[in-house]
Amino acid sequence: MTANVRQDLGASLHAILTRLKSQPQLYPQIYLAYSTAEPVLDPIVLNLPANGLRLRFDGPDQRLRLIEIIDFSKSSFTYKSQDLVRRTGNSNEVVSDPVPGPSFKHLYNRLFGPSYPGEYIPPSSGESQGTYVLSWPGLAARFAIKHKSWSEKADFVSLLSSSVASPATSLAIFSGSSWPEARESLYTKRPQLPRSLALASKSAETVPDEIEEVVIHGNGRLELFRRASSSFMIGLNETTPQDLVAELGPPDAIFRKSGNGLSIHAGGASSKPRRPSMSPGLDPHLGDHDQSSAKSYTDDSENEISNIEEAQDDESTSEAFYNYFHHGFDVLVSTPQSKRSPNADTSADFVVTKVFLHSNIPGSYSFNRHRRSRWRIALDDNGQSRELTSQMRFKEISDVLKEVWHSSYRDAEEEKRMQRGMVLNRGWGVGDSPESSIELLGGFEEGPASQDQGSIKAGTEASMPNMSNTELFGFPGLLFEVLKNDTISCLTVYQHEI
Predict the structure, then answer these.
(1) Distance from C-alpha of 295 to C-alpha of 11, rounded to nearest angstrom
(2) Same domain, 86 and 179
(3) CB 200 within 8 A of CB 8
(4) Quick one: 282 and 158 in the same domain?
(5) Contact 235/220 with Cβ under 8 angstroms?
(6) Is residue 260 part of a domain?
């Protein structure tokens, strides 16, 4: 394997996993380590032991921040057509025996060129070797050095060229002028490259701009902020399917409901009728398409919304879910309110009536079906502006919304009844893991970090809470699907004044 991975920095976790899963021969083992307590805030680590790679993503946006080569024997790596590690025989041949990393002279003379002095990290108690980290723009290498040979006055070029230093033990790829500068904002600085691998490799004129954030305003209006172009407003019961395609591109898949039937359209696949009560995401007979996440579970949420909303629809006309997996949300397109009520005014046959914003929480049933969607709820409570975000715990959001809507309930009993969570089980009829080709390691703990990298201690799946059972909590215009660790798996927005 020849790695040219720098252009992947900034890509979404969903995009990277989708690509890796599409090539099981190249990437036979995929291990995902994350915090079950803080899956939205703490970093996510993707280990590829068969390839000698480790990828680190930030938690809030799930974007690739750091690529580490930790085993040079697993793959063949090149830099500007030069082998990173000198090999005998076929340079593309992957060997099973340990291969030492590139020497300092090879990196310095043939690949990256001169560098400023790096950082020396003394060894832990009882160990004889320290670590020297040398960095170039976007690259950093680690070398083991005999501690007794280290001196602040030593010339690092002579030291790393001598026998007291080993070849590089690992190589890091990041965005920044140097590793000391980059690590200060490794998980917080806005990446230069987009989340979408298609946008990173093609002209923006041929690929729809990606959505950075969704802001939920009152009265059924959602503003979609884009990476490089102006924002786009979705008005519930106003925006048409044609508007969606013009602004967001064609959906990755369409699940169409007609009466009691359900059919799927994705990537030109032929329509197949489904059992009337089966959600597309829960149907065990529904296979994956070229998108790893060409499944949706919005039909179940739609059924639950009907139990919470005061007005229920009895119509049997066509409805369709537009699935935008790469944008991180689904859209329900159905008959506008004007066809059911004289209070609304629109001449369109079908309009957007609900939007489903997915959080892509590791360990949840819906993991890796969509990329993570970041959102904000803009509240204007008696002239006081407040914002609720997708990074917040549901309890924090619930406390604010309970305060905002307290006066709208007839009595305490109605308030208690409307705010009671309903249990939704998404795990029946599926495998133990949300994505069978990915091993999820929950409950990792970040060990004491050295100056160049932290150490990950992964837990086991037995330590993970049951993420297939979720609870649904409704507020006017909003429906939250909440996991056992109080993180929000999906936010559904439907027509109601906030």
Answers:
(1) 21
(2) yes
(3) yes
(4) no
(5) yes
(6) yes
Range of the domain at 232: 208-430+468-494
The two structure tokens encoding residue 181? 């500068």
* Residue in 204, 237, 235, 206 with CA at minimum distance from that of residue 221: 235
Cβ atoms of 8 and 83 within 8 Å: the answer is: no
Distance between CA atoms of 289 and 208, rounded to whole angstroms? 21
Is residue 369 in a domain?
yes
Residue 200 gets the label, from left (phi > 0), alpha (psi -120 to 50) or beta, of: alpha
Q: Residue 162 to residues 105, 110, 117, 150, 167: CA-CA distances in angstroms?
A: 10, 18, 16, 12, 10
pLDDT tens digit sequence for 222-259: 999 999 889 999 999 999 999 999 999 999 999 886 55
pTM as predicted: 0.79
Length in residues, the chain: 498
Query: Do 24 and 146 belong together in one domain?
Result: yes
Nearest to 315 by CA among 353, 269, 368, 369: 353
| Mean pLDDT by groups of 10 residues along the chain of 498 residues | 64 94 92 93 95 95 95 83 66 57 84 86 86 91 88 83 83 91 92 84 73 92 93 94 94 76 42 32 32 46 44 54 94 77 60 95 91 93 81 94 78 73 66 51 45 33 54 90 94 78
Same domain, 140 and 261: no
- Look at residue 438 and tell me if it is in a domain: no
Residues 260, 57: Cα–Cα separation, whole Å = 42
Q: Last residue of some domain: 135, 150, 183?
A: 183
Q: Are residues 393 and 490 in the same domain?
A: yes
Does residue 193 form part of some domain? no
Clarify whether residues 161 and 252 are in a common domain.
no
Is there a contact between 278 and 293 (Cβ–Cβ < 8 Å)? no
Are 59 and 12 in a shared domain?
Answer: yes
